[in-house]
Design brief:
Strand order of the largest sheet of chain A: 6-7-8-3-9-10
Helix content of chain A: 25-40%
Number of helices of chain B: 14
CATH architecture of chain B: Orthogonal Bundle
Structural class of chain B: mainly alpha
Distance between the termini of chain A: 66 Å
Number of domains of chain A: 2
Number of strands of chain B: 0
CATH topology of the largest domain in chain A: Rossmann fold
Number of domains of chain B: 1
Oligomer: heterodimer
Low-confidence stretches of chain B: 1-7
CATH superfamily of the largest domain in chain A: P-loop containing nucleotide triphosphate hydrolases
Low-confidence stretches of chain A: 419-425
Structural class of chain A: alpha/beta
Shape of chain B: globular
Largest interface: A-B, 41 and 30 residues
CATH superfamily of chain B: ABC transporter involved in vitamin B12 uptake, BtuC
Number of strands of chain A: 18
């Protein structure tokens, strides 16, 4: 069924340092919650207070209306199971022995395990895919297998609440999402309330529906991903600048820690390079040139385009056109102006269609005026052409002096090297 | 399905247990037959049967009265005491190894032996003529010293309500070193009693009496039962206290009970027979190598093998330089250590206790 958990003003002090400083939140029955926060924010400590390993110095934890302190250890273990980050298993216990230990809170002293206990253990091993390992010694298993065995043990406890303390920290990406999917399945099928402390936010958003972010032992934000995973909260809790975006395939919120572009970094002072168009294909070009210290301008791009977001994030000049429209005269003039004021023009491997071909009229104009122009992945133009005219157009540009590149990585060594401005940097 | 899964390990354990029982039985017979005077096994059975109150042996007139006295007044109590002491040490060793999750742990790891030794040496040098409940000053002081040391170490390691295992281990080592130094100091000034002191510390079962058996055997049984009550908890504790606690084990309570139970076993063993090394260290390891770490099996099996091993080594101690005796502690180490090394080498994949697979 799952149980609700109320945490009231939880405090815990190590020596005189407050690890938890009045954490307060409510988790409803059957919630699937990811606990986020930097190292030392109090995630593990909070989970260990809930699992009663640690005794809080203040505050209260209410489990389904009952004070957690009033339960004895066996009762607690029947309601709550824990999957830790890592289990030391140096002993020759078999996998089945380990999973059977999950039945401990149900067995009386000297009582033999019943058929039902064996059945539950077998089902738990099936569910986590470790049944074939039943006879193997736990000490011989890989990290991923071991963690699934621990998960099976937690399942065989038949808990109402499942606590996971960074359960995926030592796993490869395959096992990471498999383990979290298992937790989500328990939540979905059996209504188990799941709380998982987790470092990998981008992984967490795929599996969890509610988020609690801790910072300095308090709850910084709680709720849906959009409410919790914001650049501001990330900055407050983790102390790094970050940007958020939608996963291009799954649409879930993702974060990325911006490399280097923090307030302390000096602004770029190199020559001004104009990059044509946007889209994901332009991003590596923009990122590379930015790292190399060039100043940048971008355009024309549509408002929701990633190139546009790049420009806003780095505060760059950009020409924005409304989505689903072609360029009007005003934009074309602005674009020509921008092209002229730049020191070089780069055409990234963008797709070509009737909508954006007119841009190249202006490019051709500045090329004729002697502006160094670079076309990346010239060979692949035809594969990205939806107009049937781009191949011919690009060939013409090259004939008129544009430099064709095969791959992006060649750009830094060619830029300004033959003709034009020379080594101004 | 359950039977299919369990079939392999399900057969090994009963066979192994039967083997251990038979080994114990034969070592008891052998210990009664051999000695400074060999008593034939027929005579042994005749004397034993004749000693039963409700049975009148047809061969009773063949019994040599001296043999009867040697057997009933010296060898039988000695064998029973060896069984009780050996199994107490082995069970305590298994408990301490599990509790501390440390393969180096033995019954003396938290300093009970040093405390007992200090008590015993103190009593010997003081020449007290105190007796209590039929016991002389040396075993009484040894027992008191052992128990006091355990309480001291426990109190030192305690943090609030909890007793961290690692602190306990370190406190035990520190206290043990300190007490050993005092014992050495006293030994240095022991003068003509030096021989007595050194002999006591080597451990031996000479001078075993029925009275000691009457106290030690029920005591060892009680300790054994107390410990085996918590074998399932001990299994969970092997995975770490936090995990055990998450599985519903009241770790602090279990730790306290097991610590006190095992310590009392050790204190009683040491006070009756001095410091007999190696039994408590090697026996649990041997059982684990064969049958795995499950304490529900490990504890009874350790008790059987510990008793057997001490009976066997004590018999050797009696016959090697008969009619004199060697201290049994020397034999246990001389035999136990090479045997253990052989096992380690033979079974290369020593996985328990972080041996690496």
């Amino acid at each position: 069924m799952g149980l609700s958990i109320d945490v009231h003003g939880l405090k815990l002090t190590y020596d005189t340092f407050p690890v938890l400083d009045g954490a307060e939140f409510k988790i409803e029955k059957g919630d699937l919650v990811a606990l986020l926060g930097a190292n030392g924010a109090g995630k593990s400590t909070l989970l260990r207070c809930i699992s009663r390993i640690l005794q809080p110095t203040g505050g209260k934890i209410i489990l389904d209306g009952r004070d957690l302190d009033k339960l004895n250890s066996r009762e607690t273990a029947r309601l709550m199971a824990v999957v830790p980050q890592e289990t030391t298993a140096d002993f020759d216990f078999t996998v089945e022995d380990i999973v059977m230990m999950g039945r401990f809170p149900y067995l009386r002293r000297f009582q033999k395990e019943s058929r039902e206990d064996y059945h539950i253990v077998k089902r738990a091993m099936e569910m986590t895919g470790v049944l074939h390992l039943a006879e193997r010694s736990i000490a011989t298993l890989s990290g991923g297998e071991k963690q699934r065995v621990i998960m099976a043990r937690a399942i065989s406890q038949q808990p109402e609440v499942l606590l996971l303390d960074e359960p995926t920290a030592n796993l490869d990406i395959g096992y990471q999402s498999m383990l979290l999917e298992l937790a989500a399945r328990l939540n979905r099928e059996q209504g188990v309330t799941v709380i998982a402390a987790i470092h990998d936010i981008n992984l967490a958003v795929h599996h969890f529906s509610r988020f609690i972010m801790l910072s300095d032992g308090r709850v910084l934000a709680a709720g849906r991903p959009e409410e919790v995973i914001t650049p501001e909260n990330i900055h407050k809790s983790y102390g790094v600048p970050a940007s958020t975006y939608r996963h291009p395939l799954h649409g879930v919120l993702q974060i990325s820690v911006a490399r280097g572009r923090d307030s302390e970094r000096e602004p770029n002072r190199g020559p001004l390079v104009h990059v044509i168009g946007g889209g994901e294909e332009a991003l590596p070009v923009l990122e590379l040139l930015d790292q190399q210290g060039y100043r940048l301008s971008i355009g024309p791009v549509s408002a929701q385009d990633s190139g546009c977001r790049f420009a806003h994030f780095h505060n760059l000049p950009v020409i924005i056109v409304p989505p689903f429209t072609s360029l009007d005269e005003q934009h074309r003039e602005k674009h020509l102006e921008m092209l002229r004021s730049s020191d070089a023009v780069v055409v990234p491997p963008i797709a070509f269609g009737e909508g954006n071909l007119p841009i190249f009229d202006e490019v051709e104009t500045v090329l004729r005026e002697g502006k160094p122009t670079y076309i990346i992945d010239f060979e692949g133009v035809n594969d990205r052409d939806y107009s049937g005219k781009a191949g011919e157009l690009m060939q013409r540009l090259v004939d008129e002096g544009a430099i064709a590149l095969e791959i992006l990585e060649e750009l830094p060594s060619l830029l300004f090297k033959n003709g034009g401005l020379g080594d101004e940097r | 399905m359950r039977n299919e899964i369990k079939s392999r390990s399900g057969l090994i354990k009963p066979l192994f247990m039967t083997g251990l029982f038979m080994l114990l039985f034969f070592s008891i017979i052998a210990a009664m037959v051999w000695g400074a005077v060999d008593i034939g096994w027929r005579s042994v059975f005749a004397i034993l049967l004749d000693a039963l109150p409700f049975y009148d042996s047809p061969a009773s007139e063949d019994i040599v009265p001296v043999y009867s006295d040697i057997l009933l007044k010296i060898r039988v109590p000695r064998v029973l005491l060896a069984a009780a002491v050996g199994s107490s040490l082995a069970v305590a060793g298994a408990v301490f190894q599990g509790l501390f999750r440390n393969p180096m742990a033995d019954p003396y790891v938290i300093g009970i032996s040093s405390g007992a030794a200090l008590g015993a040496v103190f009593a010997m040098l003081g020449g007290f003529s105190l007796t209590l409940g039929g016991f002389g000053a040396v075993p009484l002081f040894a027992f008191g010293g052992g128990v006091a040391t355990m309480m001291l170490v426990y109190t030192m390691a305690r943090v609030g309500r909890a007793v961290p295992v690692m602190t306990l281990l370190l406190a035990g080592i520190a206290v043990s070193a300190f007490l050993s130094a005092i014992v050495s100091l006293l030994t240095y000034f022991a003068g003509e009693k030096l021989h007595m002191v050194v002999f006591w510390m080597m451990g031996g079962l000479g001078g075993a009496t029925w009275h000691q058996v009457q106290v030690m055997v029920p005591y060892a049984l009680a300790g054994y039962i107390c410990v085996s009550f918590f074998s399932r908890e001990l299994n969970a504790m092997l995975l770490g206290e936090e995990t055990a606690s998450n599985l519903g084990v009241n770790t602090e309570r279990v730790k306290k009970i097991l610590l006190v139970g095992a310590s009392l076993l050790v204190a009683a063993a040491v006070s009756t027979s001095g410091i007999i090394g190696f039994v408590g260290l090697v026996v649990p390891h041997f059982i684990r190598l064969v049958a795995g770490p499950d304490h529900r099996f490990l504890i009874p099996a350790s008790a059987l093998l510990g008793g057997t091993l001490l009976i066997a080594t004590d018999t050797l101690a009696r016959i090697i330089i008969a009619p004199s005796e060697l201290p049994v502690g020397i034999i246990t180490a001389l035999i136990g250590a090479p045997m253990f090394i052989y096992l380690l080498k033979k079974r290369k994949k020593l996985r328990y206790f972080g041996g690496g697979g």
